[in-house]
Amino acid sequence: WVGEIRTYAQSYSQPVVMGQVMSANDGFSSFWSGGSDPTSPPDSVLRLGKHVGQDTDQTRANETVGYLVVEAGAGRLAAQPFVAGISYEPVHSVTEAPPSRIWLSEFIEWIEAGVVSQSGMKGTSGSWGLLRAPMDPGSEWLEVATDEDQIADSDRGEALEDLAYLAFASSPAGMFWEEGSDATALPPGNSRSGALLTAVLGSFQTADDVDLYRLTISDPLNFSAATLGPEDASLFLFQVTGDGIAANSDDGGASNQAVLSAGDPLIMLLAPGHYTLGISQNGVVPTTAGTPLFATDLSGAAHAPQQAGSVDGWSGSSSGQPGSYAINLSGAQFTEVITLPEPSAATLLISGSLGLACLNRLRSRRQVKKIRGRK
Question: What DSSP character marks residue 303?
Fold first, then answer.
């Protein structure tokens, strides 16, 4: 597999590439994309092509290929919530059971529409991604598969493949909080008025940057926070006074994301009210009087602080990189709840005659929690 190298019109941490052969000048062909390694999804290299599967006639006329590039993560387009990513859990052939599923209920609710596209080509026969079953509005997952032709043999899949996906919710599920200028590193944190809060979108200005957000936990029993990249981030929940409540850097899942789970005993009995949520990259920790407030290892379930005291500084360093992040939330509201109209359409950057597009806020190096076989 060779393909044609194209140049991105924007910069991406984890590009999600969807595409289609848009003309039919010379019979069947199917879109595929790859990265610096053609067998893997696009990365810093964008490799595009079309293939004709196992057809013995490999010579074809040129075709027009359309493609769309979106940064992995959750976002909103014209007030419509969406999530994009790479499956990273190898997807089965259409003939195999149980079916492969990409679980998305952590990120958007009531999935109405979705599309998938093969990302990388591990097999030698040529295949393409598809939605395996009709999708009922309200689904929590995309049921997906790969398929191939039967020109040379009867099988319909020789390798487990990665799929790029883009899914839209049926209705707006809340509002996003975009960081804007760099958030403060000490409590009570940045605050903002609004209504239902479903995600925070921000960025690390440096590898050691720390951002704190003051929010309202309106439903402690169902409050949750989960990062959408990078995979080496840590989440911290504080009282607005700075006293530690809970922290996590890796929930133990395959995606290595930081998660404060709904129903966690450290959080579920909190009184509804204002709290401070912090995010840093692993290795940068809150301190009180020069001593780390939480343990060094924050993996697994949420951790309580190892000592009393309020955060008055941060220490340590991270091996990560500057870049964007998102935190998905449930059971939360902005600090002051007011009624607001629907937000304006998200900024969409369009460039190139083939329709290269990207949403300009969300940047994560890896797609997120429970993208692989939840339940």
Answer: B
